[in-house]
Amino acid sequence: MSVFPWLRMRRLRQSEGIRRLVRHTYLQLDDLIYPIFVSEGHNVRNPIPSMPGIYQLSLDRVLEEAEEVVALGIPAILLFGIPETKDEVGSQAYAEQGIVQKAVKEIKGKYPEIVVITDVCLCEYTSHGHCGLVEKGEIKNDETLELLALTALSHAQAGADIVAPSDMMDGRVYAIRQKLDEKGYSHIPIMAYSAKYASCFYGPFRDAAGSAPQFGDRRSYQMDPASSVEQALEEVRLDLAEGADMVIVKPALAYLDVIRRVRDTFAAPVVAYNVSGEYAMVKAAAQNGWLDEKKTVREMMLGMKRAGSDMIITYHAKDIAKWIRDGNF
């Protein structure tokens, strides 16, 4: 027997006031992490054509960006480095005066309240563009771990609040945790890119960071988009067992089911990475008048929150903060 007309779902949708009372999913400033690309040089503000509104910034301009982030109330940033020189072993990734190390010191010195998260990987720093050492065309796993650990340590020594290994080498969380602990940085959390897929949505990021592989691709270490959700859960389980404190699912939109399963399975905070390609699609569609950017971004962010993410890394963070500030998001 039908329950209509006694039960009417529209009763709780009839006004904005009632809709606000019964909402379950919210996005707030405290959920946001804003990625920044920092490069060598002075007064550098290079626009990234495939990512409208995002720039490669020199140290002096990064401080301007940090000032805006503070003013907008965004609690955290994620730093990516663009070095002046690259080599086979990515030595600028773990150099004491590397670009990320210098940026961390400058930002934390002037804006200590910002949570500075640093991307720990070699791909932006290697001449071949891969996330690990290469020998005869093979990306070497175990030989890469010490360099990743040294990179994380150098970031912690510079003042980073959180380190985020994104390379997807087996055992890298353990190597980093061990290195940090033995050097007196046991208090530094690890935000691991635990379920990171070999995705076509990274294209604009590779333009921004100059990190496209010079040969082959990254499918031998990043996850296959067609792999099972159980494989993603195993990656997360291993990272947590090795010492990760938070886990990232990347990309976000095509992997909301993975975010949900990770949320339901583990107690650790879950981070959705709303990646460069997802950002670029919305910007391009909005510029052509095909989508309402603000409404589209809101719907996307709510989807990531509803799937179970505690935090969202997004290039839209400043836009969202301004919309929230203006009271119309």
TrEMBL record:
It comes from Thermanaerosceptrum fracticalcis. The gene is hemB. This is Delta-aminolevulinic acid dehydratase. It comes from the Bacteria. The keyword Metal-binding applies. Its cofactor is Zn(2+). One of its GO terms (molecular function) is porphobilinogen synthase activity. SMART domains: ALAD. Belongs to the ALAD family.
